[in-house]
Design a protein that fits this description.
Strand content: 5-15%
Structural class: alpha/beta
Length: 319
């Protein structure tokens, strides 16, 4: 077992950290990984997830997600050098047989099948047609059931659905609302194969989550002509853009977890914690979450999180 660095957060030193930002924030993520590896002597994260803009993608349907094949290849090779697993977020809900020929999606699967030093590269899926395609054509890639899958399939809060998904997939994403459903979590078997999103900033029990996911999938398939006006009208009355609502309505607080809540989940046996970064134009929020969760910050005479965060940012800023 890897020894614990004196800079590492001792509350959950064996946690598997799964961070967003692949193919968007690669420079910052790799620089931060190297900083922690070389100077602090521990692997700050184990998995990176994401996808460039393509038909199979959903949840990251933004102009700044457009990437050339060589950019994806270059990032993949850097992660391969560091034995960091890559999870491709191919979570579009609306795919059919005609979409399986997508050149970019298939090329990424070929590349990450071949460049898979950990044997744990994976595809996160929400669509059964694409799941069967990945399983048949790229058997070396693990398959992971997405939050979109359990949300739009009506599986939230249902133990039997989680059991079925655990039989069908290598790993299962837990619905964000269920991350606080301790009675359900206690009953889940093989907890290390279930992934918990712990920095979700959407509201609890969001009534339009399924509609939002479907809108994003539609946007990925019709990127140049998609109109998001229907979703924007619905979101305007949902409360998720109102800071006052998020701070005062106990039923609509954000789903981001605090330290005692994360610690309780770890003590229950969960080890795989996912940090999302959807919609962020840069890596600052992702790196802040990594700093506060993975580094020690509780000694009376030194705040390792603050000091190392400042030193890291200074190290990558241009002169």
């Amino acid at each position: 077992m890897q020894s614990i660095s004196p800079y590492q957060n001792s509350l959950w030193p064996d946690a598997v950290w799964d961070v967003s930002g692949a193919f968007v924030n690669d420079r910052e993520l790799i620089a931060f990984y190297d900083y922690c590896k070389l100077l602090l002597e521990f692997d700050v994260f184990n998995i990176v997830h994401g996808s460039p803009l393509c038909e199979w993608n959903s949840g990251r349907v933004l102009k700044h997600m457009m990437r050339e094949a060589e950019e994806v290849r270059a990032a993949g090779l850097e992660y391969e050098k560091r034995n960091i697993s890559v999870y491709l977020t191919f979570t579009n809900l609306l795919l059919n047989e005609t979409h399986l020929k997508d050149t970019f999606g298939n090329a990424m699967c070929i590349f990450f099948s071949r460049h898979n030093p950990t044997g744990k590269n994976a595809v996160i899926l929400a669509n059964d047609v694409l799941r069967d395609h990945i399983r048949k054509e790229y058997p070396s890639l693990k398959i992971v059931s997405s939050i979109l899958k359990i949300t739009n399939g009506g599986g939230k809060g249902k133990l039997d659905v989680y059991k079925r998904l655990a039989d069908e997939y290598d790993e299962v994403m837990v619905h964000p609302d269920d991350v606080l459903n301790y009675d359900l979590l206690e009953k889940i078997e093989d907890k290390e194969r279930h992934i918990l999103l712990i920095n979700e900033y959407c509201i609890r029990n969001c009534p339009i989550r399924a509609f939002h996911y479907k809108s994003l999938s539609d946007a990925a398939l019709n990127f140049m002509s998609f109109s998001g006006s229907k979703f924007e009208e619905t979101q305007a009355t949902n409360g998720c853009r109102s800071l006052y609502t998020l701070l005062t309505d106990e039923h609509k607080g954000v789903l981001a977890l605090n330290t005692p809540e994360i610690r309780k989940l770890r003590e229950m046996g969960f080890t795989h914690f996912k940090l999302q970064g959807r919609g962020h134009a840069n890596a600052s929020s992702i790196l802040f979450d990594l700093l506060r969760l993975t580094l020690r910050n509780d000694t009376p005479d030194e705040n390792a999180m603050h000091r190392n965060g400042q030193m890291f940012w200074e190290s990558i800023l241009p002169f």
